Amino acid sequence: MNKAEKNDAAGLPAELQEIRAYLPEFVARLEERIPYVSALVTQESGLSLQVDSRQEMITEREPRRGIVFTLFNGRFFQEWATDCLDISYLEKKTDEMYRLLEEMKDLEPRFYIDPGEVISAHFDSHFEIDPDSIKLADMVDACRKLIDDVSAMEPKISNTSVMYRDSKEYKIFVNRNKVLSSALTTCSIQLAVIGHARGNTRMNFIGHGGVTGFEAIQFKSRELQEMIDDLNLLFESRPLPPGEYDVVSSPEVSGILAHEAFGHGVETDMYVKGRARAAEFMGRQVAAPEVNMVDDPSLPGLNGSYFFDDEGAIAAPTRIIENGILKRGLTDLRSATVLNLPRSANGRRESFERKIYSRMSNTFFDAGKMDAESLISSIDDGLYLKKSTSGMEDPKGWGIQVIVNLAQEIKGGKLTSRVFSPITMTGYVPDLLKSISGVGNKVKFEGAGGMCGKGHKEMVRVSAGGPHLRFKSRLG
Amino acid sequence: MERIINVLDSFPGISDWRIIHVQSTSSQLYVIGDLVDNIRKVHTNKFYITIYSDHGDLRGMTHLTVFEMDIPHLEHRLSNAVYIAGRVGNPRFSLPGKSYYPYVETFDPTLLGDIRDILFVELGDRLIRIVDNEPDITLSSSEFFLDIQDIQQRNSRGVALDYRKSEIFFDGVLLAKKADLEIEMHFEPRARRMQDLPIAEIVGRSIREARDSLDAVLPETGRYPVVLTGSALSGVFSPLIHHTSAAAQYRKTSQFRTGESIYSSGEHKGEPLTLISNSFIPFGLRTAPADSDGIPASRFELIREGIFIKPWSTRQYADYLQIPATGAIGNIEIPIGPNSVESLLTDSRPVLLVKEFSALMPDNISGNFAAEIKLGYIYKNGTVVPVRGGSVSGNLLSGFQNAHFSTEATFSNYALSLDSFGTYSGPEAIRFENFQITGS
Questions:
Q1: Contact (CB<8Å) B62/A60
Q2: What are the backbone dihedrals phi and psi of residue A346, each rounded to the nearest 5 degrees, phi first?
Q3: CB A356 within 8 A of CB A382
Q4: Buried-exposed string B197-212: b where 16+ CB fall within 10 A, e elsewhere
């Protein structure tokens, strides 16, 4: 990840610099009576613009600011969190934290927490244009113009909307060995069109964004036209006759497969709970030999990028699948400690108000050797799975639920005008991964990125991607 | 609060304002198997402020969230907010004023007792003990949340409302094993009071369903009747909630027209749908004395026998459409139908009863959906076979064109839409005739 790694934390707001300087001593004081203590401060704020053909809304994004102290007694964690970052308030609450210790002090320790290497660093994300430098009036005018231009492209459109968001995310992590901080700038935009025809309503959208500046959120005219074309195709779409199909997935659909179908199953907190079938497959073949899958929070500019996780592990790639073999899972501190697994930087929490879990970051199938055109031309009778809307994990059963919103027929190696929607992709994850017979040579991360939940809660920002993939799939 | 109000009242550029002050305490317990993983206590204290700024014929508005420690810097934050609101140009709309707010039940006073006792003894230990008695079932993990919020709502037109609400949520995962096959069953009930969370009943049902899942097969591919019940009803109403909103009417993203049939062809074969918004249901998840604008709670019909009666509307969209404001949508109420569940499951063709989807996340605009079956049952020729895997797909808006409602009623808390939970009071089962089942 592009970064400015420094020992000073000038990139933090003044009040956070003060807390960063204060916390090491405070944590050390708590550790005189508690075996392991860490502190995480998060502060997020930014701007949100929602403009459509009929109305507009500009507002600050709901700021998330707070501190969570994690106390470990050798058995389990206790956490104390507040949205008040006032140092005198924290000092007053020290006794409350000691009281938590009193309630757990008689337990025999079972685990030891490795505080990691000694490091003090600050990281700033790279961007070319600071969103804060753009005049609000210019931003609103640009959104209004985009809406007018797009609305004029197709008479079926009844509403066009733009959702723009930026943020500054500050984070400080402190334990006895580490003092880490970061300042991330994020920027994203999503453009949606809604059309009416023959009593039906359809929507299509495109987006850009991630840990990046304002420069990354421009739409090309080709993208706008493709969005309109796909909206029109959705009106022509029909239900797909259920069956098993030869398919080529777009990078967007490949990404959702990587994330939903497989990625959730290698989050190792699920191993601890006995909820992941992947635990039984470590070191075993789970995919075709040409399949490689990676999770990498250190990639620059993507929606799931960060410099260190919420437990102080420095971001680095984890090669989950190598040549079809399941090699590594994604760990948080607890699961790595309990299972004696190597740490990866995947301990993340929705906010200081929530607990840590093992979570993905930027998850993707790595590139292969074939170009997209030859993958499509190699299919005699099948489908190109172009756009997806959602997916759901099933780590225990390794079942697949991916919803494809637009699929195009392939006949004799060429795309036809017949389109299908909506489509469910179901089946057993290893069957699908082992059926992969072609891997494209370009990895793409489509869209603005998004938020990922654990079950139906605990949202964190992530991205997913991959190359085009050729495989067999049960669709309906 | 007083200081904030005083500043807002006199701040240049602010035409109107709204404050929602929320003080929350969240007590959380996380358990893996029967061992404590984490115990958490979270305190938050936030002022959600909305300012309205009129310029010319237009009204701008913007939100800001103020923490207690920000109050000394409030003027700076408000200056920025006034600047932002000045860039927003929507047609003028009004704010609700002082009103009578009905008493509605939103808080369980038993939660004022010893929280650790409730978390550990009444919830955690009880769950562990129930599962301990089942030899083929293990408890993978459980999470318990007890949240109490004190809410104060004020606005510049006289709204003044204070109330307290509670929410209890637990998330449990059971593992069931038979030979080499192991499956998990997930339950995540949520309620405002303890007595609406009968743990023994909830877990007992999940245990039975987990065992059934071990014997489940793929459903047969085809088009045959689908009956949705239990948590499979979660998300079903989401497209209806979208299309019946005044916001969607105003933004032209709804295909419903007031006074007209909601069925695109104008005809229906099943029982016509009646859909009611009800913010009074005692301890309902969307029960509140008023919506966030301060419009008092109400109960009203959105759809009556297939005809779209009126949209649910916040004050802003009500003004735009020149209709009375109903307030935000409440809990969902649907009248029971004339058919027993048994009769809904009886047909010369197979009938698929779905109890749980992996996730039903319909496209609210089109109504299209496709969802994997987590647990269902095929009723065919007097036999009942559990099924899992495969999917159900179709269109929920046109699905109600040929839907049948059970006489048996249920009262449940579901995710009524993707981003919001609510209470459903209505038929225990709804049968749809035109969905596609994909399986073996």
A1: yes
A2: -125, 20
A3: no
A4: bebeebbeebbebbbb
Tokens of B321: 């459409």
**Helices vs strands, H then E, count in chain B:** 10, 23
**Candidate from A85, A200, A274 with C-beta closest to B366:** A200
CA B426 to chain centre: 14
ipTM attached to this prediction? 0.87
Report whether pLDDT(B220) > 60: yes
On average, the pLDDT of chain B sits at 93
Q: Tens digit of pLDDT for each residue in B392-436?
A: 999 999 999 999 999 999 998 876 665 577 899 999 999 999 899
| A458 in B contact zone (CB under 8 Å) | no
H helices of B163-321, in order, are 199-214, 238-243, 246-250, 315-321
Look up residue A119 and give its amino acid. Answer: I
Instruction: Report the pLDDT value the prediction gives residue B417, as an integer from 0 to 100.
Output: 60
- A2 to chain B nearest CA, in Å? 31
Query: Which amino acid, residue B374?
Result: K
A76: which 2 tokens? 């389990």
| Per-residue b or e along A54-90, where b marks 16 or more CB atoms closer than 10 Å to that residue's CB | bbbbbbbeebbbbbbbbbbbbebbbbbbbbbbeeeeb
Whole-angstrom distance, CA of residue B388 vs CA of residue B375: 5
Give the pLDDT score at A2.
44
Query: Two tokens at B102?
Result: 């009905």
Helix (H) or strand (E) holding B6: helix B2-10
Helix (H, G, I), strand (E, B) or coil at A232: helix
Q: Which tokens hold the place of A230?
A: 């796909």
Closest Cβ–Cβ partner in A55, A66, A389 for B363: A389
Whether a cis peptide bond, with omega within 30° of 0, leads into A422 is yes
CB contact under 8 A, B358 and A80: no
Inter-chain touch A60–B84, beta carbons under 8 Å: yes
Are the beta carbons of A424 and B171 separated by less than 8 Å? no
How far apart are the CA of A3 and the nearest CA of chain B, in angstroms? 30
- Which residue in the set B32, B183, B390 is minimally distant from A272, CB to CB? B32
pLDDT at A109 over 70: yes
Instruction: Show residues of chain A in contact with B185, CB under 8 Å.
Output: none
Q: Is the dihedral of CA A115, A119, A121, A126 positive or negative?
A: negative
Question: Is residue A369 within 8 angstroms of chain B, CB to CB?
Answer: no
Query: What's the CA angle centered on A188, arms A185 and A189, to 5 degrees?
Result: 155
| Partner B contacted by A333 (CB < 8 A) | no
pLDDT at A251: 96
**Segment B95-117 mean pLDDT:** 92
Q: Which residue of A has its CA nearest to B143?
A: A355
Of B87, B186, B393, which is closest to A58 when you measure between CB atoms?
B87
How far apart CA A184 and CA A168 sit, in angstroms, is 6
Q: Which chain B residue's Cα is nearest to A454?
A: B171
User: Residue A422: which of B221, B370, B437 has the nearest Cβ?
Assistant: B370
C-beta of residue A39 within 8 angstroms of C-beta of residue A68: yes
Question: Does the beta-carbon distance from B183 to A397 stay under 8 Å?
Answer: yes
Give CA–CA dist A272/A178, Å, rounded.
26
The whole-angstrom distance between A130's CA and the closest CA on chain B is 18
